[in-house]
């Protein structure tokens, strides 16, 4: 029975009985208080509406149980693994903690798989059963404690209810607290990202077959699939090169579109052209990747072969690979156009009209006004927009995975296939369950670098935008 | 030395002209930029749509299976029905039953598993097995592509009248011309078409041959399919030729299979139909049998989890930041943090999911629950930002009025401000969901690329999602995956357009100017 319970993956269905209990408590609280005799004097009136008493009792009932479930969610896995590890035979424990962790990972995965069947390996099957049993125990314990806590909360809360009880004050304080927790989840996410990346990165550099920090950041030889060379410079180079190609497309087109839309276009044209431009941002990146790989990359290749065949170029002047950096860069640029254009549009519109009027009154043409007055005034904002776009290009994944290829090269030839940080993260982490080899953990080190770089770009850009907004408001 | 008091007018007018030209050029750059962005979009949609069209229809081979001996069987398997299909095919082409190669060509027209839907139907309702049933078999992907593309380029023409048909010792056939010119006109026609660029099939009285060579005034033929007419004088029966335009060495189909397809098409047994597999089937290793149903279900479950997680939390967080938070250091940190989080690359969230949800919490891989949570964290900042904008657009007078009538802050917000901001919040939430629906990279990292052959039934079953299946099919080796991928992209884009239209309509219907 315990094993079956431990195997069940639907612990989160407990939300339904919890909600039912809350509703029950609400009704009790409300009706009981509504039934209290009231008078017209201040002391005889209810301090709060009956509804608030109901809410108070509902919170008293559900919150403790919810806390218990949360605690279970965080600790159960560690508990089951810890107990299981202490019970493993010594010959397995002697093989070192890496091997033991790998074994337990496999056990846990097997216990959760849908059609759990016997593998025939005695120790493994026994461990799987024991693991499921432990999870079942933890689950049963959690349910038991949760029921106790919610009953306790219910009876305690019910004792508080009386005419003069300030239920509304308490309820509103609890609500404010809950709102704060919701706002804090965003912060928790960041903390989670930073902690997990830092933790895995430190582990990567301390692995016996992992590289040193210096080798990782400045080495020029990347061969992670075999777990030998971890010099990430070719990856950084490829990422920057594709981002630069993308910027060559996105910045001129995006900027000129924004200028035309905000300075020249009639409101009618603007009303339909702007949503169309923004459609480009709504298309999933995997669609861009497909387009780049099936249409653009062969075109680039054909062009490169044509260049190679020209009489004055050597045979192998361009690499002419079927997947290439140029295709990925071009399409990434198209994807980023709306980011540049809508952000620049905002900052150009924020430039005060008197500046334009002044320039036009001095006899400048409209293009001169834009070039010499509006753009210099909007420059910080435009730079911020470009920075945000660069950070977007660096972090873009699917287009490069599908169209840029995977060879770790340092070359300025845009028709050769080069690899990027995001491509490597995907190829290192898909289809591998163990988090113990240098190969998989290196993805987290790459992710750490990516996160750090994009964060710096974003912070600078957002600061510039903010300061700039203040300057004209 | 006398300087002219007034500069002569010509250079100044020239200068003005230059400036006006510069003005026009500048304006043209802007128009060009917008036109190129829009044309990129058009080319993208058209090229994908063009590729997708062919995947929405496919060719099916219709056979009647009449097997009274199946009546008692409750354990009919794919193999049983497959054998019945093969018997039926051999009944249609008895001349092919002798050779192993011939049989392989015949049975290769439809993949083994294309009988699976019929098998399932008969297993559920064994009483029908004794009646003759119509089996609709999906033809193999190579044949399907050939029928869609190359079949139309076949060029058929009359050759003349047949003379004597004889059989050589090696098993080939010799055919002479009944007319006087000994196939000279035919040879001319072939060299005009470019003999070496493609094979030629010869049809004589319902039998199909491939032209091996022309020796003198005799055609040397290999039999492909159809009953061979009696040897000897053919009493001037008409000979027709079909020039294929491709050589059998350059394609996946043999000449015999093409001849079989011509015969089957004449009998009306191979027909083009709507490809319902695409919407009803789960993933498969055969492109002709694969469908997006499992991916659609997986996407729905993932979105459900994402919506249940991120929309309530996002709205509540926005309410806190906009209505309750004092201007303190802490709220400032939360605000900066949310703005930055909105710009973090999505793949980082995948890393977070892999290391926290899979590794630390020990949740299983490849399930929509984990995928939904990761995408929920990903779109949370977007929802918070949109909800805050919606809350901000409710004028302060609404709050003041509520507070002035004695409402508490919480009452003012939850009874008045939030309902007024609801349309704006909902619009933002729908757009955020649309973004989550198209995300691929985080789902790859938490293992939602696993091969899933069954439609998932709950958020904790193994599943894939629509964008992931696009990536997966794109990586497939067979050529037939490309139109299939394009078709799934069209399905995804249609869903996204519907969501965005819903958001736009909502905005227009409930938009309020204060």
Could you characterize the architecture of this molecule?
The complex is a heterodimer of chains A (473) and B (514). By secondary structure, chain A is mainly alpha-helical. Chain A has helices at 2-7, 15-34, 50-87, 90-93, 97-112, 122-160, 167-206, 213-218, 233-264, 267-282, 285-309, 325-350, 353-361, 366-395, 398-403, 421-429, 438-472; strands at 222-223, 229-230. Chain A is 75% helix and 1% strand. In chain A, strands 1-2 form a two-stranded antiparallel ribbon. In chain A, a hairpin with a 5-residue loop joins strand 1 and strand 2. Chain B contains 17 helices and 10 strands. Chain B has helices at 9-53, 78-92, 100-107, 116-124, 141-148, 184-193, 255-266, 277-280, 293-324, 329-341, 346-360, 368-392, 396-404, 409-438, 441-445, 466-474, 481-510, and strands at 57-65, 133-138, 155-167, 173-177, 200-204, 207-215, 218-225, 232-233, 238-243, 270-274. In chain B, strands 3-4-7-6-5-9 form a 6-stranded antiparallel β-barrel. In chain B, helix 12 packs across helix 14. Chain B is elongated and about 110 Å long. Chain B starts with 8 loop residues before the first helix and ends with a helix. At the A-B interface, helix 3, helix 5, helix 7, helix 9 and helix 10 of A face helix 1, helix 9, helix 10, helix 11 and helix 12 of B.
Which range best describes the helical content of chain A: under 10%, 10-25%, 25-40%, 40-55%, 55-70% or over 70%? over 70%
Class from helix and strand fractions of chain A: mainly alpha
Radius of gyration of chain A: 31 Å
Q: How many distinct beta strands of chain B? A: 10
Question: What radius of gyration of chain B results from the CA coordinates?
Answer: 35 Å
Strand order of the largest sheet of chain A: 1-2
Order of helices and strands of chain B: HEHHHEHEEHEEEEEHEHHHHHHHHHH
Number of strands of chain A: 2
Low-confidence stretches of chain A: none
Order of helices and strands of chain A: HHHHHHHHEEHHHHHHHHH
- From the N-terminal CA to the C-terminal CA of chain B, the straight-line distance is 71 Å
Q: Quick check: average pLDDT of chain B?
A: 87
Beta-strand share of residues of chain A? under 5%
């Amino acid at each position: 029975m315990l094993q079956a319970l431990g195997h069940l993956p639907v612990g989160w269905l407990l939300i339904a009985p919890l909600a039912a209990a809350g509703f029950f408590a609400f009704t009790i609280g409300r009706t009981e208080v509504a039934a209290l005799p009231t008078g017209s004097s201040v002391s005889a009136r209810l301090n709060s509406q009956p509804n608030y008493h109901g809410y108070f009792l509902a919170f008293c009932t559900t919150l403790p149980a919810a806390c218990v479930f949360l605690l279970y969610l965080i600790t159960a896995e560690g508990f089951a693994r810890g107990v299981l590890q202490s019970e493993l035979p010594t010959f397995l424990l002697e093989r070192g903690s890496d091997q033991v962790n790998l074994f337990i990972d496999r056990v846990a995965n097997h216990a959760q798989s849908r059609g759990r069947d016997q593998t025939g390996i005695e120790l493994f099957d026994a461990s799987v059963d024991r693991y499921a049993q432990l999870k079942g125990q933890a689950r049963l314990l959690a349910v038991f404690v949760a029921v106790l806590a919610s009953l306790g909360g219910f009876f305690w809360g019910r004792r508080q209810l009386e005419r003069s009880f300030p239920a509304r004050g308490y309820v509103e304080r609890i609500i404010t607290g809950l709102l704060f927790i919701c706002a804090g989840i965003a912060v928790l996410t960041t903390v989670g990202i930073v902690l997990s990346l830092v933790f895995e990165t430190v582990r990567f550099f301390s692995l016996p077959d992992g590289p040193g920090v210096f080798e990782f950041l400045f080495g020029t030889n990347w061969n992670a699939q075999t777990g030998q060379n971890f010099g990430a410079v070719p990856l950084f180079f490829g990422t920057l090169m594709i981002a630069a190609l993308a910027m060559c497309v996105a910045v001129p087109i995006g900027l000129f579109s924004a200028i035309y839309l905000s300075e020249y276009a009639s409101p009618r044209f603007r009303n339909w052209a702007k949503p169309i431009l923004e459609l480009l941002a709504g298309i999933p990146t995997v669609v861009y990747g497909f387009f780049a790989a099936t249409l653009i990359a062969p075109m680039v290749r054909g062009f490169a072969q044509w260049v190679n065949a020209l009489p004055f170029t050597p045979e192998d002047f361009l690499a002419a690979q079927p997947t290439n950096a140029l295709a990925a860069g071009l399409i990434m640029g198209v994807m980023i156009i709306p980011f540049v254009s809508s952000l620049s549009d905002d900052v150009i519109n924020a430039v005060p009209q008197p500046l334009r009027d002044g320039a036009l009154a001095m006899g400048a043409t409209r293009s001169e006004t834009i070039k010499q007055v509006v753009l210099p005034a909007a420059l910080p904002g435009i730079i911020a927009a470009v920075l945000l776009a660069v950070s977007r290009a660096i972090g873009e994944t699917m287009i490069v995975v599908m169209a840029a290829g995977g060879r770790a090269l340092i070359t300025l030839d845009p028709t050769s296939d080069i690899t990027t940080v995001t491509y490597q993260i995907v190829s290192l982490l898909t289809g591998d369950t163990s988090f113990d080899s240098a190969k998989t953990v290196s993805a987290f080190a790459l992710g750490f670098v990516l996160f750090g770089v994009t964060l710096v770009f974003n912070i600078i850009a957002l600061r510039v935008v903010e300061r700039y907004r203040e300057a004209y408001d | 030395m006398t300087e002219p008091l007034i500069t002569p007018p010509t250079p100044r007018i020239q200068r003005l002209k230059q400036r006006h030209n510069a003005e026009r050029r500048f304006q043209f750059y802007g128009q060009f930029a917008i036109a190129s962005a829009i044309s990129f979009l058009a080319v993208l949609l058209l090229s994908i749509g063009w590729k997708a069209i062919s995947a929405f229809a496919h060719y099916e081979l219709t056979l009647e299976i009449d097997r009274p001996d199946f009546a008692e069987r409750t354990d009919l398997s794919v193999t049983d029905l497959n054998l019945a299909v093969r018997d039926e095919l051999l009944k249609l082409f008895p001349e092919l039953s002798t050779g192993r190669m011939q049989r392989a060509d015949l049975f290769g027209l439809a993949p083994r598993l294309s009988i699976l839907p019929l098998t399932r139907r008969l297993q559920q309702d064994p009483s029908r097995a004794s009646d003759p049933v119509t089996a609709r078999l999906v033809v193999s992907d190579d044949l399907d592509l050939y029928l869609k593309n190359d079949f139309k380029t076949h060029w058929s023409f009359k050759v003349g009248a047949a003379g004597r048909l004889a059989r050589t010792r090696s098993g080939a056939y010799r055919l002479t011309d009944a007319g006087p010119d000994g196939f000279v006109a035919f040879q001319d026609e072939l060299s005009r078409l470019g003999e070496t660029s493609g094979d030629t099939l010869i049809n004589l009285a319902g039998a199909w041959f491939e032209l091996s060579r022309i020796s003198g005034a005799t055609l040397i033929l290999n039999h492909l399919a159809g009953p061979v007419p009696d040897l000897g004088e053919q009493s001037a029966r008409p000979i027709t030729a079909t020039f294929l335009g491709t050589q059998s060495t350059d394609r996946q189909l043999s000449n015999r299979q093409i001849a079989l397809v011509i015969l089957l098409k004449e009998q009306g047994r191979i027909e083009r139909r709507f490809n319902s597999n695409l919407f009803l089937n789960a993933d498969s290793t055969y492109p002709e049998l694969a469908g997006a149903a499992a991916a659609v279900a997986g996407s729905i479950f993932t979105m459900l989890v994402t919506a249940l997680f991120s929309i309530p939390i996002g709205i509540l967080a926005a309410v806190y930041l906009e209505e309750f938070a004092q201007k303190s250091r802490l709220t400032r940190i939360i605000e900066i943090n949310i703005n930055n989080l909105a710009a973090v690359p999505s793949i980082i969230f995948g890393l977070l999911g892999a290391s926290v949800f899979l590794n630390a919490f020990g949740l299983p891989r490849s399930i929509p629950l984990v995928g939904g949570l990761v995408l929920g964290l990903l779109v949370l900042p977007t929802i918070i930002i949109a909800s805050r904008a919606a809350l901000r657009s409710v004028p302060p007078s609404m709050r003041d009025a509520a507070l002035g009538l004695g409402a508490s802050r919480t009452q003012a917000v939850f009874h008045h401000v939030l309902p007024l901001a609801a349309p704006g919040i909902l619009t933002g939430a729908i757009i955020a969901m649309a973004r989550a629906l198209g995300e691929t990279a985080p789902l790859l990292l938490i293992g939602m690329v696993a091969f899933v052959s069954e439609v998932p039934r709950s958020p904790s079953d193994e599943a894939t999602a629509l964008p992931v299946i696009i990536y997966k099919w794109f990586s497939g080796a067979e050529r037939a995956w490309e139109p299939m991928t394009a078709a799934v992209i069209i399905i995804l884009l249609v869903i996204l357009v519907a969501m965005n239209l819903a958001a736009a309509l909502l905005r227009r219907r409930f938009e309020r100017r204060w």
